[in-house]
């Protein structure tokens, strides 16, 4: 397992002083990036690999959020991989090793120029990067598409992919897009489980159209383009 030590920063907490779901997402994203960077499989501002890894899915469960200033450890490992696909998990631990949150993710390696699936050309995963898959409490099924024509679906105010949403690959960052959907659904302070499927890159200047369906357990969000084709689908509970 690749690990990094940290403390919960004030900027990562909610009004209760606990780590927010957005803060957890950013910690998990940073851990995944630093892991890839340590193995020569990540782009940097000064260098560009011929291949790069894009996130396809993530499921995240928060069991107990730490407080501002608490010492924490974030870890990640690969539990399954083949050709251009890798399945990884992420974990948030307190300073005594108690599991506070767990994530399950699916990644695809793509050609940096064409965006098509490709075999990794640079870097190598080490034996220590692999581990066993841990079970999540939620079922990891597909996220249903919101039907814009259904009376159960609410169309929310549109947004736009602006500069602050972009990452080094010049498309909407996965955390930023997830935060946008979470905010549209009004789940920023109540979410303890989220799932996401990233289907299409949202490029600079593109308009985002969020559609929301709510049931007794939570909310489903489809973030679409003008043609109602989803960039991503989300589930918040």
How would you explain this protein's 3D organization?
With 237 residues, the protein is mainly beta. It contains 2 helices and 11 strands; from the N terminus they run E-H-E-E-E-E-E-E-H-E-E-E-E. Strands 1, 2, 3, 4, 5, 6, 7, 8, 9, 10 and 11 form an 11-stranded antiparallel beta sheet that branches. The longest helix has 18 residues. The radius of gyration is 18 Å and the shape is globular. The model has no long low-confidence stretch (mean pLDDT 92).
What is this structure, in a nutshell?
With 237 residues, the protein is mainly beta.
Which terms would index this structure?
237 residues; mainly beta; eleven-stranded antiparallel sheet; 2 helices; 11 strands; 13% helix
Instruction: Work out the strand percent.
Output: 35-45%
The helix content, as a percent range, equals: 10-25%
Helices, by number, come to: 2
* Unreliable sequence segments: none
Basic shape = globular
The succession of helices and strands, N to C, reads EHEEEEEEHEEEE
| Secondary structure: number of strands | 11
Question: Overall mean pLDDT score?
Answer: 92
Quaternary organisation of the protein chains: single chain
Structural category is mainly beta
Sheet with most strands: 11 strands, antiparallel
Termini gap: 28 Å
**Rg of Cα set:** 18 Å
């Amino acid at each position: 397992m690749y690990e990094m030590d940290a403390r919960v920063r004030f900027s990562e907490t909610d009004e209760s002083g606990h780590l927010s779901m957005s803060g957890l997402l950013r910690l998990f994203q940073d851990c995944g990036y630093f892991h890839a960077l340590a193995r020569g499989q990540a782009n940097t501002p000064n260098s560009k690999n011929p291949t790069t890894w894009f996130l396809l899915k993530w499921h995240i469960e928060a069991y107990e959020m730490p407080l501002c200033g608490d010492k924490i450890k974030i870890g990640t490992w690969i539990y399954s991989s083949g050709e251009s696909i890798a399945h990884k998990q992420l974990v948030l631990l307190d300073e005594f090793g108690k599991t506070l949150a767990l994530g399950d993710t699916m990644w695809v390696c793509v050609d940096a120029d064409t965006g098509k699936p490709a075999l990794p050309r640079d870097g190598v995963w080490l034996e220590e990067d692999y581990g066993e898959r841990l079970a999540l409490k939620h079922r990891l099924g597909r996220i249903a598409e919101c039907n814009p024509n259904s009376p159960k679906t609410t169309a929310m105010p549109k947004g736009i992919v602006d500069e602050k949403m972009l990452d080094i690959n010049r498309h909407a960052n996965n955390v930023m897009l997830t935060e946008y959907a979470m905010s549209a659904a009004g789940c920023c302070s109540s979410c303890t489980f989220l799932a996401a499927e990233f289907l299409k890159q949202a490029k600079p200047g593109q308009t985002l159209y969020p559609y929301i369906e709510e049931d007794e357990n939570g909310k489903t969000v489809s973030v679409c383009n003008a043609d109602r084709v989803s960039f991503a689908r989300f589930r918040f509970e």
